[in-house]
Amino acid sequence: MMKITSELLSDAAKKGIISNTQVNELLSFARSHPGAGPRFDFTHILYYLGGMLAIGAMTLFMNLGWEVFGGWGIFIISCLYGAGGLFLTGSFAGKQLHIPAAICATFVVALTPLAIYGLQKGMGWWVPEAVYRDYHRYIRYHWIFMELGTLTTGAVMAWRYRYPFLLMPIAATLWYMSMDLTAMLTGGRIDRELASLVSVWFGVGHILLALLVDIRSRKSADYAFWLYIFGVMTFWGGLTSMDSSGEWSRFCYMLVNLGLIGMGVLLVRRVFVIFGALGITLYLGHLASTIFKDSWFFPISLTLIGLGIVLLGVWWQRHEQELTAYLQGFFPAPLRELFTDRKA
Question: How far apart are CA 162 and CA 156, in angstroms?
Answer without folding.
Answer: 10
